[in-house]
Request: fold
Amino acid sequence: MGEGQNWPIVCAAFVTQALTHGFAGSMGVFYVEWKKAFGEDLPGDGSSTIGWLTSSVLGVLLTTAPISGALSHHFGVRPVIMLGGSLSALGLFVSSFADTIHLLFFTVPLTGFGCGLAYTSSITIITKYFHKHFALASGITSTGISVGVITLPIIVQALVNYYTWRNAVMIVAGIIAQIMVCGALMKPPPKLDKPEEETKVNLAVGSNQNCDQESCAYARISAEDGGEVETVVIRNGALPKEPRKKFLVILDSLGISLIWTNRVYACTLPMFFLNGTVYATCIVYIKERAEVVGISDYNAALLISTIGISGFVARAGHGRLIDKKIFHPTTLYAFANFLAGVSLPIIAVSEQYAMFVICAANIGFGAGLYIALNIVLVRGIVGVHRFPGGMGLALLIVATSIMSTVAIAGLLLDYTGDYMAGFLYAGIIQGLSGVWILISHVVWTKCIKDPRWPPPFPPLCRRGPNEATELPAGA
Reply:
């Protein structure tokens, strides 16, 4: 079946990402409302606590990625997305009845957990259906995030103004529940419907016999950086019975084994920790920061939508720029991080709405590029078969950065009473991510050449375990 027949899958994934990651990017509207409702009962004025709570949807969404990847391997994408949609809707519905902030500390992360199951699975299914046009399909799908960030803040703010935040949360729960419909549309690839007789997987080098792309996706414990050869037989997708081998397979499905089997991937993980700071800090605090200088709540909510609009442009265009060999992914990635890192501190000192709009657009454009390119880079470094686990672990690292940075920025706001310290901190961390990828590119292409670092232009991935490029001795 040609890739042209798979675009309905892209549409379903597009809506899923709008209602998961896009909704997480709209939580800044609730930050202001929850601070008014519960801030008096918290230390300081509650900026740090409520900021962390608001960012927990995005943070837990990304933290859930390894779990979602493993569940998708074993149960398929469709049931995982439908489960995620039901959990996220349930979390929001219960949140609408919260009389104290303590209940929200359970229900809001539950919403993030459900969104994470659906979001990561929507990425995974694109990797299974697209190869030649993967960058384009991934870019189109990820624009759903921007569409969610564009539309949901306006919708949520209108609902809050008309119905109060509690009723608004209840209505949004019904909207988020439509994720289950998207999940029902995501049929598994044809190969998943074919019976598997036996799969032999070489745990040390990832080679296999009688193994198709899907059947050994979760079982490749590929010790590409050296190690003894050991073979595990997988029958009908079942885990091996021996506890040690079963444990290794689970580590592989979660992406953890990549840390010691793929040196390029391991050295890239710090970059993922550095690059989630500005976007999360901005979507949480920009609305309140704008209202402090006298901007109306509706116009302040539009700033979040501005982030979504510029992110839409970046996500929609990056795939074509890469596929047409116009820009190297490394160049785009570094530029995106520098642009976002410089713009956030400017918001802390600006008082004109026009400057807020310009900086928000810059942050959205930069985030739209580096978030989408994270997918392209990981797929190029670890290959198609190990992408779910590799991407899941990368998103877990990003989530750790997001939740810690937003909390630190809130603490600095509580302590100093000013946004500059927290915004400057986040901007510097973000800029370091751009420096990291430039250094990595020099190291893996000039100093220690490694074919796993993405080549100048697509294709950025190895098609299968038997087509992997030969690694240098001692790699």
The two ends are 37 Å apart (CA to CA). The longest helix spans residues 134-176. The mean pLDDT is 77. The beta strands are 199-202, 208-209, 231-234.
